[in-house]
Amino acid sequence: MARKIYLRGGLGVGAFRRIYGGSQRNGSRPPHFCKSSGSVARHILQQLQNMNIIDVDPKGGRRITSSGQRDLDQVAGRIVIAP
């Protein structure tokens, strides 16, 4: 989720509900798209805020902090180097 905020920015709970949503099975009726639960997304975003990886964007949603961007860049650098 931190990577998605890093790439797109301005994502909130509602956006993650759409991203992680899927087909709702309605028994004998046809299936339709349904958003996922917001509880899991909300708690993950709160944990990332407590770790100072993201913070609230005044324009709406969340954005990556400079320390969070540095951490994600370090992880990406380690993945590229790995054999």
UniProtKB/TrEMBL annotation:
GO terms for cellular component: cytosolic small ribosomal subunit. InterPro entries: Ribosomal_eS19, Ribosomal_eS19_CS, WH-like_DNA-bd_sf, WH_DNA-bd_sf. One of its GO terms (molecular function) is RNA binding. GO terms for biological process: ribosomal small subunit assembly; translation. Pfam families: Ribosomal_S19e (PF01090). Gene3D superfamilies: Winged helix-like DNA-binding domain superfamily/Winged helix DNA-binding domain. It comes from the Eukaryota. The keyword Ribonucleoprotein applies. The keyword Ribonucleoprotein applies. Keywords: Ribonucleoprotein, Ribosomal protein. Coiled coil: none annotated. Belongs to the eukaryotic ribosomal protein eS19 family. PANTHER family: 40S RIBOSOMAL PROTEIN S19 (PTHR11710), LOW QUALITY PROTEIN: 40S RIBOSOMAL PROTEIN S19-3-LIKE (PTHR11710:SF26). This is 40S RIBOSOMAL PROTEIN S19. It comes from Salix koriyanagi.
